[in-house]
TrEMBL record, chain A:
The lineage of its organism: Bacteria, Bacillati, Bacillota, Bacilli, Bacillales. The chain crosses the membrane at residues 33-51, 84-105, 112-129, 135-152, 159-181, 193-216, 228-256, 262-281, 339-356, 368-386. This is General L-amino acid transport system permease protein. Residues 193-387 form the ABC transmembrane type-1 domain. Belongs to the binding-protein-dependent transport system permease family. One of its GO terms (biological process) is amino acid transport. One of its GO terms (cellular component) is ATP-binding cassette (ABC) transporter complex. It is a multi-pass membrane protein. InterPro entries: AA_ABC_transptr_permease_3TM, ArtM/GltK/GlnP/TcyL/YhdX-like, MetI-like, MetI-like_sf. It is found in: Cell membrane.
TrEMBL record, chain B:
Gene3D superfamilies: Periplasmic binding protein-like II. This is Amino acid ABC transporter substrate-binding protein (PAAT family). Residues 32-42 have a biased composition (Acidic residues). GO terms for biological process: amino acid transport. Residues 28-53 are annotated as: Disordered. Belongs to the bacterial solute-binding protein 3 family. It comes from Paraliobacillus ryukyuensis. The lineage of its organism: Bacteria, Bacillati, Bacillota, Bacilli, Bacillales. Residues 1-23 form the signal peptide.
Amino acid sequence: MMHTEITPTKSKVLPPEQKQTIFGWTKKNLFNSWFNIILTFVSLFIIFIVLKGTLTWVVTNADWEVIRANYRLFMVGQFSEEEIWRVWSALLYLTLLFGLSAGIWKGTIRQLSFLLTAIYVIHLALPFLSGHTKIWLLSNIVTLFASYVIGLKLPKGKMIGIGGWLFSIIVILFFLQGFGILPSVQTSMWNGLLLTVILSAVAIVGSFPIGILLALGRTSKLPIIKYFCIAYIEFIRGIPLITVFFSMQILIPLFLPEGFTVANIIRVMIGATLFTAAYMAENVRGGLQSIPKGQFEAAKTIGLSSIQSTFLIILPQALRAVIPAIVGQSISMFKDTSLVAIVGLVDLLGIAQTVKSNPAFLGHHMEVYLFVALVYWVIAYAMSYSSRRLEETLGVGKR
Amino acid sequence: MKNRKRYLQFVFAGMLVFLLTLTGCSSTDTSTDGDETTDEATDSTNDASSGKTTLAEVKERGYIVVGGNNQLPGFGYVNSDGDYEGFDVDFAKVLGAAIFDDPEAIEIRPLSAQERFTALQTGEVDVLIRNTTWTVERDVELGTNFAPTTFYDGQGIMVRKDTGITSLEELAGARIGVETGTTTEANLADQFRKLGIEYEQVLFDDSDSLVEAYESGSIDAWTTDKSGLVSRQSTLSEPDAHVILEQTLSKEPLGPTVRHGDDQWFDIVKWATYATMEAEELGINSTNVDEFIDSSDPVIRRFMGNEGELGEMLGLENDFAVQIIKHVGNYEEIYNRNLGPDTVFKLERGLNSLYTDGGILYSPPFR
């Protein structure tokens, strides 16, 4: 907090560096006046009461059996036991990608891989997971390290890495859905964290290209495209997400011809993607507007066509400028997927609601909701942390 | 400036048209839905070449899609192994057993209270078994048919024992908690207006916060369906310190629901449900069903499909009742498994007893 910017006054005498002890710091910041002394004690008292109440409840009153017994439900929902290897394989593929990318790009992705390893290790230490699960966890950890080492030395690593990520959605959907090659698992069995992650991944990844196109369309000079994009963006931004979900669930089936049904999970995915795209478009437009006119002119001067200048000069700079906004949008989308619990899909929150309705665990909703909140927090925090790291690496706001 | 204004007008006009189309479609849908579905469905039943009966569709698919609830203790929830369980779920299994001889030939599709009727009307689910109260409006306006009631519920009120309150009249001036947007809210207002008693209504978004408020003493009483009160009582810190008033505020007959227009499917759901009650009346259950196969009693022989062709008339196997009892059990077994004395609910049979035991469950004869 004391790191003030050094003003360019060329002063040669810098202020002496103060060596502060903890005692000195508290004296200076917490006990420097009568008012602050009282404030400190009142705050400490409040913190003590809250912490004591929470910790007493967490340690003594709460019965965490409900989490232990339903752990699998929370994670993958009703995905059948025999087919669970498919979820693991999909995860293994992701782990492999993380490891490779950590080796190739280092930086942020390496931090995320550390986090992933930490999560695996924590799960490995959980006493109630079956041996089967632990073998999968171990193989994930081994894969992560092996692929990291490979990634460090891989020639043309970046191409392979980018290719891997591009294919990841298809590979994961192949494992989960089967595409007719593997026995199909009904989408109504895709529950819990699995559904939350798939739903938000599809919405975030899918909305990105649509959002960019909408943003470019909105700044276009062709009136039809321009006003279509404006109408779309403003219409979507004017209605709440839950309305979109409700119309996807209730209105769409009424319009479809008889006997023709689209799985409700697909309908929700489409709704979430279209919704996020409108917000993504506005974020990207913000970035486009931050690019000085000189860049356009410079691109024109060296003979680039308008398409070339857009995709080679303008967009890369514009997107870099709005990384925080885009990640913020992604985090909020990730959390907003919990709204699907209201329209009958069983995501992480939905599974929490059905678990607390199990007569064996009646009255343990506090534990259930606390656990769900923790899972949401870990993932949302990882996203926001990696965004901050990414900004630092790219030097947003510094150059 | 002028140009811009015109463009804005254009945009708004466009949006308005879009909105009008949306609302226009949805309003016609709700008002004429019953008729439409009836016509279409009747057509499809009559004209085998263009459409299929629900039964044919279900048989081709290999399983029944059942609209259910996954958040109601005792009636529908997912157990720790990831399987659906509960009273309503068992009646879905009854249908699976009757049609496919396999209680697991069902897919439960969890539905919210708002979307359940749309899902039924549009054919997304074949049957709705989701604690749905039978009312005139739903039966007629929404174009649905109600199979026999499987559970007679009614709204009740819970108070602390030490208050000594035993009737609604004594609740004058009390703070009563209720969930918003439910029929219970309206029922509560109706009852107290009838009695001319003043009370303070406290609204809650979900039952968890309602129960929490009741336990902490910020409200004097709370109300919901009696089955819900009983199931929650067992989770209070001192279950014995609370009492549910004798009086019932409303009638809540809950049962399976199908859409208008396919009478064969309606009959199947109806008679599969009745079969569980008839079995209890005849004393047949899942453990002793085999002993009855050679029975000489003509009533039992007809019920088991050894005589007559009751099953074939419905489009099922003649021994469909046997399959139901073998796989799922009779009504008593279903009740006891989910709500009875061995569960946390310990719910009295009450109205849900056979007519021979003082209840109102009464299956028409199987002949």
